């Protein structure tokens, strides 16, 4: 019981700090007195850190007096997966969420300490404390992570097998949550601007920096999630339009739109209603994504817990939307812009197209994700919305995106000078055409692949041209070359290059992937898409954590060990463990699909019509897939540069 009371006491301290900060901040806004927000923020953070310390101590020492530890840990769980067990289920995930939110609140309050008397900062701080209070109330009530385990357990169930099969589980969820939580800041300042009526100030551009930071972290988290799926789930793909994948994608799409359109507001005074709406929508979609992930209403390979919090989460989502819509309607007259878009092919016109593209696709993804719920509610049956629905929109969207990335950095504000545009675009266009000719000479004949490479090459040329201009300017000003990377356009262009690299990797790997099932006896070899594969026999691995039946496979003389692995705990879960030989040119992805014989061994699927000792291997060869992860890292690096950039009148959105 000691850990239960220590953990709950820490959470109550965090709740007291958050409630105190919220209450005194509202009083300060009404009376003009000091709120001491920094003290309350530190108090709340101290409480959350204390609760985290109690939970981590219980997990690392395998203290099963806590029900959460008994359900998500075991004595044989390795240290890394004991630590990551905190976000293996709902209650621990909320602990991580409030930790990140408490750190964010303390950072924001400290960052704006010199302007704490500004009503916009005051109201934004109150909103941040309010959001923090909601999540702490969940943990002090229906999602208590410190429930006492009434049974005297000597052993726990252990984490889900899929959550102890790859170290990416230590990085991917925290980055996703950090991205989600970060979007609270632009939401809080949007609400503050609407409450105060200060909708014409420079706050939107200021909040763009926080949005860029959150967007970059979320981008890397999504890419790492795709990498985790690829490494662990055994199907050879990286994105399946799963409901939880879509839940992470939705705020990323609207956040991308906001990052671009707020620049237009700063330069031309346009999109005021639109930008405030995007800030509200992006935060609201993070709450909706949490509802999808943790309520159990949608089935997903990425969702490892369900709860009764669904009504509370969806209620908070609706409250957020109602608050934002109501305030925007109230301030409608002040939000109107006195000017409009002068030319469709001006920079602001292309940003309009960008926003329509991303928000439209977000609507498509949202409808495809919630349609099964609506269908079940109306008809009582079950239906799934699969890849063809999403791909039918994602493919043309990607084409338009590459076109916009090619043109937007090269056109001017308000007007279009076709001669100037062509002079800037000409070299990239000819290089892109040369790339297509070279591909045709190498035997590439698929029109969509050639078209994608043409657009990607043109977009890359546009980004490189802009970066070159930044370096030339730095040299003329006798500044060090790295100062150009902190210029207004460098981060955005690095992001563009990351998108180009990812687009090339996706198009190439999906268009030219070779998938085959091969049956081999010990010592036999085969060739799949030019890759020489040999089966050399079986090996059994027994550890306290797991028992694995491995295959000794050689791929071009490199040793791989695909396996069927049975993890102890949780009724001895058995999962397939793929093996991957990866380089910059191609990936060879090998899975242990079945074995011949008449009796099951270590959980492997048995096919009696095959000779004993033979195996069925799933072999997937995908060219250039490693560049997908490299492109994701470029996205994160570009976002970091954009966050750190110097302010300039020539800001260019990433």
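Sequence proposed for the structure above (654 residues):
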């Amino acid at each position: 019981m000691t850990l239960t009371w220590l953990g709950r006491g820490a959470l109550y301290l965090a709740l007291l700090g958050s409630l105190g900060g919220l209450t005194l901040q509202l009083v300060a806004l009404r009376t003009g007195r000091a709120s001491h927000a920094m003290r309350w923020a530190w108090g709340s953070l101290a409480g959350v850190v204390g609760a985290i310390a109690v939970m981590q101590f219980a997990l690392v020492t395998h203290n099963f007096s806590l029900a959460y530890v008994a359900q998500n840990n075991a004595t044989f769980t390795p240290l890394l997966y004991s630590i990551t067990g905190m976000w293996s289920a709902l209650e621990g995930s909320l602990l991580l969420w409030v930790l990140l939110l408490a750190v964010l609140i303390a950072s924001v309050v400290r960052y704006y300490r010199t302007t704490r008397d500004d009503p916009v900062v005051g109201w934004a701080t109150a909103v941040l404390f309010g959001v923090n209070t909601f999540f702490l109330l969940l943990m002090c009530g229906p999602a208590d992570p410190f429930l006492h385990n009434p049974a005297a357990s000597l052993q726990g169930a252990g984490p889900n097998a899929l959550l102890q099969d790859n170290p990416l589980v230590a990085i991917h969820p925290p980055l996703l949550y950090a991205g989600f939580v970060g979007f609270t800041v632009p939401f809080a300042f949007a609400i503050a601007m609407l409450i105060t009526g200060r909708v014409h100030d420079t706050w939107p551009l200021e909040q763009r920096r926080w949005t860029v930071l959150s967007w970059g972290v979320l981008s890397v988290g999504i890419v790492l999630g795709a990498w985790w799926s690829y490494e662990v789930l055994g199907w050879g793909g990286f994105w399946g339009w799963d409901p939880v994948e879509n839940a992470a994608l939705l705020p990323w799409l609207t956040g991308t739109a906001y990052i671009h359109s707020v620049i237009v507001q700063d330069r031309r005074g346009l999109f005021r209603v639109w930008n405030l709406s995007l800030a509200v929508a992006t935060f609201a979609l993070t709450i909706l994504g949490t509802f999808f992930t943790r309520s159990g209403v949608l089935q997903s390979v990425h969702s490892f817990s369900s709860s009764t919090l669904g009504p509370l989460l969806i209620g908070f989502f609706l409250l957020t939307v109602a608050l934002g819509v109501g305030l925007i309607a109230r301030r409608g007259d002040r939000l109107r812009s006195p000017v409009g878009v002068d030319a469709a092919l001006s920079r602001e016109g292309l940003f309009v197209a960008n926003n329509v593209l991303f928000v439209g696709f977000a609507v498509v993804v949202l409808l495809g994700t919630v349609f099964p719920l609506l269908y079940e509610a109306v008809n009582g049956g079950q239906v799934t919305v699969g890849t063809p629905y999403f791909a039918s929109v994602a493919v043309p969207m990607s084409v338009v995106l590459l076109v916009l990335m090619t043109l937007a950095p090269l056109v001017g504000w308000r007007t279009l000078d076709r001669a100037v545009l062509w002079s800037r675009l000409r070299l990239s266009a000819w290089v892109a055409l040369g790339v297509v000719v070279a591909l045709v000479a190498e035997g590439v004949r698929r029109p969509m692949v050639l078209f994608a490479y043409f657009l990607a090459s043109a977009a890359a040329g546009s980004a490189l041209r802009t970066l070159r201009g930044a370096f030339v300017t730095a040299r003329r000003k006798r500044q060090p070359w790295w100062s150009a990377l902190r210029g207004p356009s460098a981060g955005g262009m690095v992001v563009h290059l990351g998108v180009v690299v990812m687009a090339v990797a996706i198009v190439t790997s999906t268009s030219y992937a070779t998938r085959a099932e091969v049956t081999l006896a010990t010592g036999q070899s085969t060739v799949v898409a030019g890759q020489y594969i040999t089966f050399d026999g079986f090996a059994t691995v027994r550890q306290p954590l797991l028992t694995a039946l491995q295959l000794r496979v050689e791929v071009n003389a490199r040793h791989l060990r695909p396996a069927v692995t049975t993890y102890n705990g949780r009724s001895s879960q058995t999962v397939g463990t793929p093996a991957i030989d990866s380089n910059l040119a191609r990936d060879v992805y090998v899975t242990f699909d079945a074995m011949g014989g008449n009796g099951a061994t270590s959980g492997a699927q048995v096919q009696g019509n095959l000779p004993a000792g033979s195996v069925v291997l799933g072999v997937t060869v995908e060219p250039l897939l490693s560049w997908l992860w490299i492109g994701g890292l470029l996205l994160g690096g570009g976002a970091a540069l954009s966050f750190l950039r110097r302010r300039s009148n020539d800001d260019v959105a990433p």
